[in-house]
Amino acid sequence: MINIFNPDKLTRQAFFQDLINFLYQTDDVTSRQIKANFPEVPKIDRLIEEYVQAGYIIRDNKCYTIGFDLLDRLENVSLDSQLFVDDQSSIYEDLTALTFETRLTNEANDLVLVEKNKYRS
């Protein structure tokens, strides 16, 4: 299953998360298949079009696929990066073990606040 870290307005939607996991597990998905698997979703065509316009979903020859890369290495990962990670991959465990340190300094009284954060799904 694909987990999204630091989702934006579109990627935070429950249907988006369900759709990308469906696309990730199924090849050559058509609009008809999507509608058959998600009959309860209102305005599904409009939502899919938003995802296509944002580049999260690719439409090619009337078939849909995911349009983003899954995280495969931890280089250049920052605390505020939007990340797509397969929770069955080894990189997922490495990512959740990462600790980020943020330092806020106050020159008036030489105060330094140190905050440590981890990615959580």
Structure description:
This protein is an alpha+beta fold and 121 residues long. It has one domain (1-121). Helix content is 31%, strand content 26%. The chain is built from 4 helices and 7 strands; from the N terminus they run E-H-E-H-H-E-E-E-H-E-E. The protein has a 3-stranded antiparallel β-sheet. Strand 3 (57-60) and strand 4 (63-66) form a beta hairpin.
Q: Which secondary-structure class do the elements indicate? A: alpha+beta
- N/C terminus separation: 12 Å
The tally of helices reads 4
- Describe the biggest sheet? 3 strands, antiparallel
Low-confidence segments: none
- Spell the H/E element sequence: EHEHHEEEHEE
Helical fraction: 25-40%
Instruction: Please state the average pLDDT score.
Output: 91
Shape: elongated
- Amount of beta strand: 25-35%
Number of strands: 7
Number of structurally distinct domains: 1
The strand line-up of the biggest sheet is 2-4-3
Q: Radius of gyration in whole Å, from Cα?
A: 18 Å
